[in-house]
Amino acid sequence: MTVRIGTRGSPLALAQTEWVRRKIEERHPRLKVETVIIKTKGDIMQDVALVRIGGKGVFVKEIEDALLKGEIDLAVHSLKDVPAELPEGLVIAVTPEREDPRDVLVSRGNVKFERLRRGARIGTSSLRRRCQLLAVYPDLEIVPLRGNLDTRLRKVEVENLDGVVVAAAGMRRMGWLGRVSHFLPPETLLPAVGQGVLAIETRAGDAGLIEDLQFLHSPRTGREAGAERAFLRRLGGGCQLPVAALAEEKGDSMVVRGLLGSPDGRLVIRREARGPAHDYLSLGERLAEEILAGGGKGILAVFYPPCR
Predict the structure, then answer these.
(1) Backbone phi, then psi, for 21, in 5-degree steps?
(2) What positions carry a catalytic annotation?
(3) Whether pLDDT at 240 is above 80
(4) How many whole angstroms separate alpha carbon 123 and alpha carbon 132?
(5) How far apart are CA 82 and CA 61, in angstroms?
(6) 305 pLDDT higher than 90
(7) Are 223 and 237 in contact, with CB atoms under 8 Å apart?
(8) Is the pTM higher than 0.90?
(9) Other C-beta atoms within 10 Å of 44: how many?
(10) Does residue 157 register a pLDDT over 70?
(11) What's the CA gap between 137 and 257, in Å, rounded?
């Protein structure tokens, strides 16, 4: 029996997919697993800002289309790239144990943020990172940066940047942690919803395949990611805005921290919600409500009127 995994063709996406492929074949020797590389809109249009070509979804839509058409049997995504609302007929069947959710700085000269020169040029295409970095370091020059992880790291030299901010999970999965200059704590830079989580997406009706994949699933990661995505849905997951969230389960309890801000970092609203871990969806929604009531509605009205 052959199982086809759909994935983007970037080195990081292929490394993530190879990990999943290897785990499946080790657990189910009867299965032959093939990798199908699919080019997404986000991969093709690398010279255009993500907010101009659709933001969330630009790295998954073509893969989801192939899944719905039966051209592949499952897809491996970085969960932070997956919109809050899935196409009808598809489900996130598995979320393996989460990798480090933090962001990191990779800098010229291997210096931390506190030692960067005034007016340092930092590369990132993320509104979330831009907003939070400018809130803490208002003298930074944020340089829009697209491309695969290896391309962005290379641009430190090519484009005369002082550094780039990327996800710790990608650096770890590529074996590049030795290049990290500074791990940024969530108190400084709250991560993207689902950052560090792999999402294995399938058709909702493929019960046998879903059951075969459950050995990879981390219930804790599923609850944490579920809380963060509930928060995103309630805020308006289709809008292009600086939004961040991180849920952490400890014992029977969970704390969810969230953020909504303006692109320039001048307005940033942070809140947190605590409660039973089994109530993770309600926690995420409650957190969003608190942010909206605490000034979030005003930010959306001023900066993102088309989204509401």
Answers:
(1) -60, -45
(2) 81
(3) no
(4) 14
(5) 9
(6) no
(7) no
(8) yes
(9) 12
(10) yes
(11) 21
